[in-house]
């Protein structure tokens, strides 16, 4: 059994874990402890772990699963990476406003791991907030305005934002314009906790409200969620592995600029089981709230 040393990273989220041996499989007692820890803290940082891609994938899948994973079915993608330096990269430029990956997809993603493969001084950080805690701490009057309401999630909502979008924010143009209608108080499929499930990068609008009403309410929610004291910023060090709960937490980054310090992160996405069919019954066509019908 690994001798783990654990310390909390901020009052809102995160724990740093030292002492893990990056070898598949992790012993059951250690795995159980780490699963409980990620359910509680949302984000685990393993400083200087330098995992191979197989261990990264194994650990990410194991930590956001209730049961042991099938090692024979582990799909390891060595070259899925985010970089402003290597030619192979997903989302290689721009700032990203807060979001959870795949909020708009029927097949979502429960967990994410990033490994600091190549980091030079001055590399941009990754920021996190705890959206489960944001729901728990939502002022009663604000909660009453969103309880029972749904939001329309899409692949890129940057064209919806007036006050949150900046010139350096990444705009993603997908061929298929999918949208998904999900509860604003979204029940986490594994932990059962309610999560405040809206984000400036991926939430198109609140269903049933006109554009101005929707934006005003969203901005009130975001002022609560992204208050500076709620944000944890991870400054990258080469060799770090971080794993987080992609439903309970949201993440963001400043502009990833090709002129900035090199930063290459190997990425693992843990696919989720199908969302509850009752939640995905309405899939609306892509259009702007402000467009004439
Ligand atoms: Fe992301």
Overall body shape:
globular
Compute the average pLDDT: 90
Q: Give the proportion of residues in helices.
A: 10-25%
Say how many strands there are.
16
Bound molecules: fe (ii) ion
Q: How would you describe this structure to a colleague?
A:
This protein is an alpha+beta fold and 293 residues long. Helices cover 18% and strands 28% of the residues. It is built from five helices and 16 strands. A seven-stranded mixed beta sheet has the order 1-2-3-14-6-16-4, with helices on one face. The protein has a four-stranded antiparallel beta sheet with strand order 5-15-7-13. A three-stranded antiparallel beta sheet has the order 9-8-12. A hairpin with a 6-residue loop joins strand 10 and strand 11. The longest helix has 15 residues, at 211-225. The termini are far apart. The model is unreliable at 280-293 (pLDDT under 50). Fe (ii) ion (FE2) binds at residues 96, 99, 101, 251.
Write the SSE topology:
Blueprint (H helix, E strand, L loop, with lengths): L4 E4 L6 E4 L9 H14 L1 E4 L6 H11 L17 E3 L10 E6 L9 E11 L6 E5 H6 L3 H7 L3 E5 L24 E5 L1 E3 L6 E3 L6 E4 L4 H15 L6 E3 L6 E5 L3 E8 L6 E9 L22
Parallel strand pairs: 2-3
Antiparallel strand pairs: 1-2, 3-14, 4-16, 5-15, 6-14, 6-16, 7-13, 7-15, 8-9, 8-12, 10-11
The structure holds fe (ii) ion (FE2).
Fe (ii) ion binds next to strand 5.
In short:
This protein is 18% helix and 28% strand. It has 293 residues and is α+β, with helices and mostly antiparallel strands.
